Structure formats: structure tokens, C-alpha cells
């Protein structure tokens, strides 16, 4: 792994843990951090030893408190559009990396922070986490995919309420509306995320990978095309050793030993 200024990385038992680390700015995403995330996800994508990725924020208080407002303050329209496109591309890279990505949301997930969490496959929140898209208080809409992914996750009406009011919601409310998958005590957050990562890792890797691709692909197209895509990846998996192993293990009443082949 190459060196990073605003990201920390460690690997534990096949789980890659990426920590956004700009403590002085509550881990706000400046351009340097977005470029580092881009490079980090390129590295993680080609590192076969990393099976599942967890993204979290440094410190107790914040996951990511949004895009860096001091950097955006004097941007022109063209710079704003380019900044949005850059971060959108990086978040799409995270969303589509062929490995599960879990956001362990330890505190504020505001603006670009909520958008980063939404680009992950699964969100686990500490009871102390707070979510929101407060951009309208700054004179802008969300620009890192928030208007699109929030509506897809929580529905049009709830998304519009959060977007129009800029209100912050706590973890319990985020869970109630389906923005997060699970809520845990703050000191259980990492272990809960890691336990989920390990459970996913015990399943057939190619099957998990195609589930991710099929859900992502399917949400971009009509049902008929999504179903057709599913049939293709369903069929392809019968060419894997893991399909033979999984079904043989079931018939032999033993645990499967998957190899990712
Ligand atoms: N950008 C730059 N700096 C930020 C920041 C941000 N998004 N969020 C916090 N900081 C900085 C603060 O300026 C402060 O720095 P100084 O110590 O140098 O003054 C430091 O982090 C600590 O923050 P606070 O003193 O404000 O801490 P607090 O506990 O009083 O409040 C908070 C915490 C409610 C999260 C508050 O910091 C806040 O409202 N932050 C901004 C949240 C926001 O509006 N995010 C959306 C940004 S726009 C965006 O993300 C667009 C997009 O779609 C991509």
C-alpha cells in the first residue's frame, strides 16, 4: 500500500480498513482526500488479499462532516461542476468495486459524508451517528450523488424532506427509514462491522460479487433488463468450483470450503 496523508489503512484477516483521517476538520473531504480515496480504491481493487472493505472516520465525533467548505467557498460554476464530477466518479468507483464495502459510521455523516456512506454497500451506525444533507443551508444541493442515492435508499418523499430541510437525523431515525442497516453501541461499532465482513467472507466470493453487480446493475435499468442480467450471472456461477462445493457440501451435510474459484 502506498503512502497517504488523509487516509489510514490497515488490514485484518482479509478485511481492509480505510479510515478518513482529517481530525482538525472532522474528516471533511478536501480535494486531496478525494484523490487519495481514488488511489486507495484502485489499490484495494487489485489487492487479492483484501476481500471486504470497511470505511470509517477518525476519532469519536465524526465519520465525515461533508465536503470541505473552505475549499468550495470561492469556487466558480465550472470548478463546482468539475469538483462534483470528480467526487461522483470516485464514489462510483467505491460503489462498483467488486468487493463488499461496509461503512462503519462513527459520528457525523453530513453532506459528502452521508453521500460517502450511501456509496457503500452496507451502513452500520454507532448510536452516536448523525446523518443529514445540510447543503441547502450553504446555498447548494448535494453534489456527490446525494440527490440520487438518498431517494433510492429511503424513497422520494423522505429524501426530499431531508434534502429540503437540511435536517440532521440520529441513528435510530436513520435505521427506521432504511438509511442504515444496523445500529450499535459506539464501542461495538467496529466489531459489528468486522463480524459482518467475516460472515460475508465465509460465503462463496464469486456469488457475493455477482450479487453486488446484479443489484447495482438492476437499479440502473428496468426490471426486465435486471432480471435478464440476473439470469446471466446465475448461469455463470454454475461454472465455478464454489457452486459444486456449496451444493456438494449441502448434500453431504457438512460446511462448504469455498476457494473463490
Ligand atoms: N468543511 C470544512 N471544515 C469543517 C467542516 C466542513 N464540512 N465541518 C467541520 N469543519 C471544521 C470546522 O470549521 C472546525 O474547524 P476550526 O476548529 O478550524 O474552526 C472543526 O471542523 C470542528 O468543527 P466545529 O467547531 O463546527 O464542531 P461542532 O461540534 O461545533 O459542529 C458540525 C460539528 C455540526 C458537524 C459542524 O462542524 C458542521 O455543521 N459542519 C459542516 C457540515 C456541513 O454542512 N456539511 C456539508 C458540506 S457541503 C457538502 O458536503 C457538499 C456535497 O454534497 C459534497
The gist of it:
The chain is of the alpha/beta class.
Strand order within the widest sheet?
1-2-3-5-7-10
How far apart, in Å, are the first and last alpha carbons? 25 Å
| Sheet/helix structural class | alpha/beta
Helix percent band = 40-55%
What binds here, in terms of ligands, is: acetoacetyl-coenzyme A
Q: Please, what is the CATH homologous superfamily of the largest domain?
A: 2-enoyl-CoA Hydratase, Chain A, domain 1
Indicate the overall shape. globular
Number of structural units classed as domains: 2
**What does the average pLDDT come to?**
98
Classify the beta-strand content into a percent band: 15-25%
CATH class of the largest domain: Alpha Beta
Q: In DSSP terms, counting alpha (H) and pi (I) runs of 4 or more, how many helices?
A: 11
Number of strands: 10
CATH architecture classification of the largest domain: Alpha-Beta Complex
How would you characterize this protein structure?
This protein is of the alpha/beta class and 261 residues long. It folds into two domains: 7-201, Alpha-Beta Complex (2-enoyl-CoA Hydratase, Chain A, domain 1); 205-251, Lyase 2-enoyl-coa Hydratase, Chain  A, domain 2 (Orthogonal Bundle), CATH 1.10.12. The protein has helices at residues 31-45, 69-72, 77-96, 112-119, 146-154, 156-165, 171-176, 189-201, 205-219, 223-237, 241-251, and strands spanning 7-12, 15-20, 52-57, 62-64, 101-105, 108-110, 122-126, 130-132, 168-170, 182-184. It has a six-stranded mixed β-sheet, sandwiched between helices. Helix 4 packs across helix 5. The radius of gyration is 19 Å and the shape is globular. Bound molecules: acetoacetyl-coenzyme A (CAA). The site of acetoacetyl-coenzyme A (CAA) has 21 residues, from helix 2, strand 6 and helix 4.
